Amino acid sequence: MDLQLRGKNVLVTGAGQGLGRAIGLAFAGEGANVAFHYNSSADGAEEGAKEAAALGVKAIAVGANLRDGESVTRAVAEVADQLGSIDVLVNNAAATQSKPFLETTEEDWAPQIGVTVAGTLRVTQAVVRHMAGNGGGSIVSLMGDSGRVGESRLLVTATTRATTVGLTKSLAKELARHQIRANAVSIALVRTQSLDAHTGNADEAKMKKILAAYPLRRLGTPADITPTILLLASPLSSWTTGQIVSVNGGYTMP
């Protein structure tokens, strides 16, 4: 199926490694031009851009600290300058931490709020200003199921992730007049480089217990997630907005 993404310009945040980088490459595979955003994973973003360019599309790596407004504004302007008007924004960047809530401090909370909440607002606003003057676009935001159903040891992460629901639905209602759609994909555990941070370096027995919570009895892979993101970003989903789509192996069922 042709998803009609060829020639579209896409910005993926947190694309220097893991799922974000896989998302960027998936768009490149559909013929889209891709900006791989990074904060600290410059080498990974540069490598991702090289892989994407090898597929015959335009691709760049662009650095920005999402906790700094000026940095975000410069990065979005750079993407628009090098690729053209931004058609798709994928909000993938987030900060997470597994820790009992009573042991957390405000210093623990700050990066999660700064990146996942305020950072997402910053980059979304900057991109929307471009989209609104260029005929519209699509925003797809990633979130974890912890933000929908809660999770022990992930209270702060779940709180920040839950804001994605309100953001997505509000964007969909307010920006429809600009032909901008907004949807979100809610995921459970996905096998990437950061998996150990979420599972606590689980041994075989603990992993078996984790998998028991999944009706499909396996964790996800980036290849399980990217098709839904591509479809929501595609013009084929032009009548879909304000939706939270679960891709999670059945871990939660809304």
From TrEMBL:
A Pfam family matched in the record: adh_short_C2
Keywords, comma-separated and alphabetical: Oxidoreductase
Domain of life: Bacteria
Similarity field: Belongs to the short-chain dehydrogenases/reductases (SDR) family.
Record InterPro entries: NAD(P)-bd_dom_sf, SDR_fam
Oxidoreductase in keyword set: yes
Coiled coil: none
Annotated organism of origin: Amycolatopsis nalaikhensis
Keyword Protein biosynthesis: no
Protein name as catalogued: SDR family oxidoreductase
SUPFAM superfamilies: NAD(P)-binding Rossmann-fold domains
